[in-house]
Amino acid sequence: MSTPIRLGTRRSALAQAQSGHVAVALEKVAGRPVELVPITSEGDTNRASLSEIGGQGIFATRLREALLAGECDLLVHSLKDLPTAIPEGLVIAATPVREDARDVAITRDGIPLHELPPGSLIGTGSPRRIAQVRRRAPHARVVDIRGNVDSRLQRVATEELDAVILAAAGLSRLGADSPLRREELGLAEWPTAPGQGSLAVETRTDAAPALLAALAELDDEATRVAVTVERAILEGLDAGCQAPMAAHAVVSGTSVRVRTVVYAADGGRRIGLDVTEDLNGEYIHRNGSGNGADAADGADPMHAARELGLTVARRLLDQGAADLVSREHSS
Fold first, then answer.
1. Domains and CATH numbers, the chain
2. From CA 178, how far away is CA 82, in angstroms rounded?
3. What's the pTM value of the predicted model, to 2 decimals?
């Protein structure tokens, strides 16, 4: 029997569910069994607020150490939790097709977020979501929470909270079935974190060529272009993946549209941009990302996507975004 491919994953139900989806797909293309290797990260043991301990690799550092030490052959991350700097010796080998990137508000009776009565308790630990709730429902009270999806849903069901904000993708991957009501929050008015809904499959740069080739078959180029733009904005802001900012890009043919917003922590002020660019030639040529012939052929869309994201970040900073976020290095 073939030696199993070892897939390192956090121990949470959501992490194992999304790793399981990748494992099934990888088994089909690699023709080898894939086994999950549970690994405990700091984010699983430190119960402090994410806004206090920061999001810089808290879910990824221990997993990456295990990968570099040879304890596993690859990792699956929620891309929104992954720092923008990739450690030496590692590579994101695949970004599978993105799931629903929206947030959802979970309530008992389906009252829209903006119609909840004054004093309603809304749970979330994300600085971005906190700022968005304070804009959408300024008379509500935000409760900083941690915990898995089931525990958060239970706090609404037992009336401890009136609502919680969760990622639609996580609910979908878990197959969460609940009598609670959900309100999908549209990306136009409620954009989400860079990379939300997307997974990152990471391995070593010196991984076996057969493994790298199999992982390449799981990669979705449109997803990779979109999240490259989004994460480059985060990188350019130098604000960390727990910053109160949002970015969502959509690829259509050779063009990409990105909506991005940076929020004041109290939700009182925001700076946003809505940009559409063609990455197949004009943008690459204009920004020096390739020679004219190569640009016309769409030679390096990922480089062009990153350049677009960095340009958007510079525009946000020029408009005063640095005054709204606490800048910290993403390495």
1. 1-96+198-219 (3.40.190.10), 103-185 (3.40.190.10), 221-331 (3.30.160.40)
2. 29
3. 0.87
